[in-house]
Please model this.
Amino acid sequence: MQEKRTFPKISLDSQMLYDRLIQASPGEMIGYEELTEIIGRDVQNEAYGCLYTARNRARSMNRKVFGIIANVGLKCLEDDEIVAAGYEAVSRVRSRARSGLKTLICLQDYAGLPDQIKIKHNTVAAILMVANRVTTPKKIISLEGIISKTMEKLTFDQTLKFFEKK
Model:
């Protein structure tokens, strides 16, 4: 019987980069040159995957988030920057949902699709409509208003109730 691992093994290069990243303090910038020197390979090109793995591991195991500074390096984000990154992710979700919906309406012959494909189409359309609707700036501001009254995180069920009302 194989023993169960608690986390996957990573390459030596990824591990070396990870070891450097977890030493960073919030607000600290680590240049690509330094990271490239650590492993002897260009982290912006051939060793990008190693850096990607190291960043993900630092986030999941050490709760350190790194933003990218184009052609310069990584910055260990401070708490307010982490929140801003979350808002940016919501904006990307909305944009991708709208784009997905625009793609779906390009069908030439919906009626001619097999039932299984119609089911997939309608399922994806429903999910994208919800994602688009719940991420509007107006909804976000309204939800911020609700949260500002309690200053606590909402549970999943409380969040769903909020969106059901509107």
Summary: Helices lie at 12-21, 32-39, 48-62, 79-104, 115-134, 137-150, 156-165. The chain has a mean pLDDT of 93. The two ends are 53 Å apart (CA to CA).
